[in-house]
UniProtKB/TrEMBL annotation:
GO cellular component, one term: plasma membrane
Keyword annotations: ATP-binding, Kinase, Nucleotide-binding, Transferase, Tyrosine-protein kinase
Protein name from the UniProt record: non-specific protein-tyrosine kinase
Basic and acidic residues compositional bias, start-end: 8-21
Pfam families from the UniProt entry: AAA_31
Family per similarity comment: Belongs to the CpsD/CapB family.
Family annotation (SUPFAM superfamilies): P-loop containing nucleoside triphosphate hydrolases
Naturally occurring in which organism (per UniProt): Alteromonas lipolytica
Biased composition (Low complexity): 22-33
Amino acid sequence: MSNTIEKALQRKQEELRKQAEAEQAANPAAEQPTSPPEVDVAAQTEAQAPQEVYQRKPAAETMSGKGEIDPGEKELFELDLNALESKGHVSLTGSRSLVNEEFREIKRKLLGNAFGPLAGTLKNSNIIMVTSGRPSEGKTFTATNLALSIASEQDKTVLLVDADVLRPNILNTLGLEGRKGLMEYLTGDVYDIADVLYPTNIEKLKIIPAGKSHHLSTEFLASQKMHETINEFANRYPDRVVIIDTPPLIGITETAVLANFAGQAVVVVEEGKAKLNDVRNCIDRLNPEMAIGFVVNKSVHTDDDGTGYYGYYSYAKD
């Protein structure tokens, strides 16, 4: 039975073949199969270029991927030097003043410690913390003036860091608006410290603001990340002086933490306000291996206007 079916199928296939040949012979102009049309590859590529798989990030995302400023296009902090001078700051416009001379004397001792014979006995001798016993004794004013004065040196650069994350005042003192800063870097909101290191219109001065306060600021300031950052500041540029404006020493734990990173400390005390016991407490809270000095605010009296700004007590390594 199976042989009969197979023979029937073969006969049917043969009939269909002959029928197809007959139809083709009767209509020789029938459409023949065609090859695919040729394509101008170059023209098609130009007209329909595929979208890039990798898209270049906007300039604002090239450093951290989190929308931070690219250092190559970073905002410049414009300091109004005339306005600062009118408020008693060091003058960088060429005029001589009492405050210029006072801070010139102070910075000479600091620079001597940082780069002179004593430097070999101090860890991070070019890292200078500026603090006080209690608030409102003039530490931020002292820190900014030291930075301005050292920035006028021919062979030194200055990095001014606001580490008073509880009451940041560097930008306000210099007439600048708030920006992201040190805390955003330590918390990881900013990827690279360069993203919060701002150049200024003073060529040799850069600023790192404090940023936004954090409830774990003590832990972040004591972190390995902060330690490595300070070491980077101290060692990367041999001509750099780093001035860190810290919180007051008494009652604030962050300051004692920062004292372990710096090689020098400038303690600002206000004449008629600071108590001897406060001064002793300040010394006790500082690293005994540091070079420690005191600036006495509002202690110098002159014949011209009745009041100068600063007297200075020599440094000593305890």
